[in-house]
Amino acid sequence: MKIDEKVYRTIWPITGADSPKNDAIFSVGIIDQTILPHRFEVKELTNLDEMIVAIKTMQVRGAPLIGAAAAYGMALAVQENVSDLHIEKSAKALLQSRPTAINLRWAVNRMQSVLAVLPSEARNQAAWREAALICDEDEQINHAIGQHGLALIQAASAKNTNESFNILTHCNAGWLATVDWGTALAPIYAAHDAGMSIHIWVDETRPRNQGASLTAWELGKHGIPHTIISDNAGGHLMQHGQVDMVIVGADRVTSTGDVCNKIGTYLKALAAFDNNIPFYAAVPSPTIDWTIKDGRSDIEIEMRDADEVSYVTGLASDGTIQTVRVTPEQSHALNPAFDLTPARLVTGIITERGVTNPSNLKQLFR
Ligand code: MRU
């Protein structure tokens, strides 16, 4: 995507002339998502520990981007030490950084299998090559999701009498959550670029506000009309005919089509179901966990620091980014980061292979 006329991906290797370091050594560039939309800053990560911190603190976030970051984390690790033991230890450390998005495990396992069969001297180059391949594939997959989703939007909007086609989305499943294009936002970019009149309801997505800060920023940079709403407003808008479709991303989808996504997704799915509004999840294949069937019992839901609920961060009038407490000092808070939307509430899953009813997901990838 372009930011002020410069093309960016969310993650990239840095080498040679771009890097203050020695030619042969790579580091990794990321966009620091913790300070968006107030500041756009690029960070250079030089070792595995820095990558793990970036994943844990959500400087990089979103399931597909977490996968790409883990792949580059493995490359940074191998650059330091190519031994089996070090690869094993690094994989373990990465796997513990964020538990819910399956893309992380998928990418780490893929890097391990590529490296395991190679002699030591070939491992460093192969690791950087494989991480780059994972990123290229992610971009292609998301582009295809965009095209399949576009067809859905076109078909649904043909029956629509409103001036604009209104889509509600939750959290940030845009290009910032992937290497490029996004998952839930890929069809939205495709529809806008095809000249359709669309308008997006952006859930703020407490506690970290990925909707209000990241989705709104992305859509604004692309010139897509959007309105930020509080997380509690979606049901009301649905009851009043102001939502034509819901599209969300996913952090892990079971083989039976249960969708685990950012906390609050389930409530949107319930409200959409009650109001007969189509509810789609945009899901790249690395987000599908073929090993599990029951999302409610088989997926570990990340519990994040309660301070994310008790405090909010924003831009103060003096231009500094500040964090302030919004809850009483003595009150406890709880912060589950994801929830599970059962397949029965999901109208369809948009994948790179096409759109399917959740119960037919397996057949689509056979
Ligand atoms: O906690 P985050 O910001 O990593 O969670 C992100 C989401 O839940 C996204 O909706 C999901 O990863 C889909 S990403 C394309």
How do the strands and helices of this protein lay out in sequence?
Elements (H helix, E strand, L loop, with lengths): L1 E2 L2 E2 L3 E4 L12 E5 L10 E4 L2 H9 L6 H18 L3 H12 L6 H15 L3 H39 L6 E5 L15 H9 L4 E6 L6 H12 L4 E4 L4 H6 L5 E4 L3 E3 L4 E4 L2 H10 L4 E4 L5 E2 L5 H4 L8 H4 E5 L5 E5 L12 E4 L6 E4 L2 E3 L4 H4 L2
Parallel strand pairs: 6-7, 6-9, 7-8, 9-12, 10-13, 12-17
Antiparallel strand pairs: 1-2, 3-4, 4-5, 10-11, 11-16, 14-15, 17-18
Helix pairs in contact: 1-2, 2-3, 2-4, 2-5, 3-4, 4-5, 5-6
Bound molecules: 5-S-methyl-1-O-phosphono-5-thio-D-ribulose (MRU).
Q: Unreliable stretches, pLDDT < 50, 5 or more residues?
A: none
Structural classification: alpha/beta
Strand arrangement, major sheet = 8-7-6-9-12-17-18
Rg, nearest Å: 20 Å
CATH homology superfamily name of the largest domain: Translation initiation factor eif-2b, domain 2
What order do the helices and strands follow? EEEEEHHHHHEHEHEHEEEHEEHHEEEEEH
Proportion of strand residues: 15-25%
Query: For the report, how would you describe the main beta sheet?
Result: 7 strands, mixed
Query: What is the helix tally?
Result: 12
Bound molecules: 5-S-methyl-1-O-phosphono-5-thio-D-ribulose
Question: From the 3D coordinates, which CATH architecture of the largest domain would you assign?
Answer: 3-Layer(aba) Sandwich
Q: How many independent structural domains?
A: 2
Please, what is the average pLDDT? Answer: 96
Measured distance between first and last alpha carbons: 32 Å
- In one word, what is the shape? globular
Percent helix range: 25-40%
CATH fold-type name of the largest domain: Rossmann fold
